[in-house]
Write a structure and sequence with these properties.
Oligomer: single chain
Structural class: alpha/beta
Order of helices and strands: EHEHEHEHEH
CATH class: Alpha Beta
Largest sheet: 5 strands, parallel
Shape: globular
Length: 142
Amino acid sequence: MNIAICDDEPIFLKQLHRKLTDMKIPDCQVHEFSNGRDLLGFFVKGMYEVIILDVEMPEMNGLQVAERIRQIDDSVIISFMTNYLEFAVEGYEVGAFRYILKKQPDYMYEKQLNSIITECEQRFRTFTFSNKNLQEVYYFDR
């Protein structure tokens, strides 16, 4: 699983990275970006399963970054982190999955991050199987 986190405040960027690392998600890579332009310059479709964006950033805010990402990739899970609730409605207009407040108790971070990871596992789950005697597959569903 590849996760991008983008926040102009280094303390929140490192804090979120640490929380994701502490979750011990198998085969997980977390990439940090301090602004939306750097993220967009690096981003290609399918690169990330999850992107967590700060809403308020200089030059290009998280909502603008999310709009550009949606033009490229409509399947990536986007969540927002911010200090302010008033941007929630706008966040959901770009298909945000979660809206995380920066200053909240750790158990809430864990709950919200777990829900994002669970959604990712359900949305991007793949199944691998091998059977030399298998001639046809009629139906396969998660």
